[in-house]
Design a protein that fits this description.
With about 130 residues, this protein is an alpha+beta fold. It has a single domain, classed as Aspartate Aminotransferase, domain 1, CATH 3.90.1150. About 35% of the residues lie in helices and about 20% in strands. The protein contains 3 helices and 5 strands. Strands 1-2-3-4-5 form a 5-stranded antiparallel beta sheet. Helix 1 packs antiparallel against helix 2 and helix 2 packs across helix 3. The radius of gyration is 15 Å and the shape is globular. It starts with a helix and ends in an 8-residue tail after the last helix.
């Protein structure tokens, strides 16, 4: 059985166009933001980056490479990277189109904030159920 990383490599290679290049760049940024992030595949092959819970997913469509942050609504986004799924209470996404510029510093900061939120949530003791 191939590792998730190997399958993601194959997906990038298979795309062979701007989406593959953009996805590969996003992946490098995610992995470089925190060396303990784990790559997984979930939900029929969707790439997922996790640490202390899901940080974000990476998906490719015909006209967009999408990064969806599981707890995006709770994250600071001073650079305004989130441009999709803005109406929800939990998730937020970044849609990257052909020719878009990626603010690597802001994206790295967003990924680190997502990891910190996950780890903070895991370290809080769960409250006892009401009697």
């Amino acid at each position: 059985m191939e590792s998730a990383s190997a399958l993601i490599d194959a997906k990038i290679e298979e795309l062979g166009d701007w989406r593959g290049k953009t996805f590969a760049r996003v992946r490098r940024i995610v992995r470089g933001a925190d060396p303990e992030i784990v790559e997984e595949l979930k939900w029929r092959g969707t790439p997922v980056w996790s640490r202390g819970g899901i940080v974000c997913t990476g998906e490719t469509y015909k006209s967009v490479v999408k990064m969806t942050f599981a707890k995006g609504a709770a994250l600071p986004d001073p650079s305004g990277l989130f441009n999709s799924s803005l109406e929800g209470n939990t998730r937020r996404a970044i849609d990257l189109r052909e020719g878009d510029t990626i603010n690597e510093t802001a994206l790295r900061d967003l990924i680190r904030a997502a990891v910190a939120l996950n780890l903070e949530s895991k370290s809080k003791p769960k409250s006892a159920p009401a009697k």
